[in-house]
Structure to design on (152 residues):
């Protein structure tokens, strides 16, 4: 196995006892996958263990656990891009979210944190005339009514 290949994960029999050595070996395999972006839930399904058990194994080998919500990281560069898109007043929140590959809620919360000015909400009729999420690739977002098409 080269340094770039991920170790193969195999299902473990339900209820099987793992010795300390086995726990560390499994934890190190899980750590490699987790560091490559796999979620704890996915890892748990792959090895047949609970998410709590996978979390403990990752902690045992010193893994830095990502915050809830996955690996969305708003780097300085992405925050600058958000600010530029926001200030342009051309795109709605959903369109900015699609460009940054985050949710509309993430866009609005970071816009607030950056102290950006509030935006006017867009009516449903204007929403339909400006963009079709099927054509644009935008996905509906929960909590904002008609797709995340509002303006914060």
């Amino acid at each position: 196995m080269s340094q770039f290949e991920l170790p193969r994960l195999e299902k473990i029999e339900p209820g099987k006892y793992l010795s300390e050595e086995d726990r560390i070996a499994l934890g190190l395999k899980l750590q490699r996958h987790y560091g490559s972006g796999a979620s704890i839930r996915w890892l748990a399904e792959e090895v047949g263990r609970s998410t709590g058990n996978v979390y403990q194994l990752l902690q045992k080998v010193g893994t830095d656990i990502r915050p809830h919500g996955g690996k969305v990281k708003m780097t300085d560069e992405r925050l600058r891009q958000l600010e530029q898109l926001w200030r342009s007043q051309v795109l709605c929140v959903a369109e900015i979210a699609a460009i940054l590959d985050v949710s509309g809620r993430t866009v609005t919360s970071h816009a607030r944190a950056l102290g950006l000015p509030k935006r006017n909400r867009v009516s449903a009729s204007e929403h339909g005339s400006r963009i079709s999420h099927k054509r644009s690739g935008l996905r509906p977002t929960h909590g904002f009514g008609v797709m995340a098409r509002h303006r914060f």
In short: The chain has a mean pLDDT of 77. The chain has eight helices and no strands. Residues 42 and 51 are 9 Å apart (CA to CA). The chain has two domains: 1-69, 76-136.
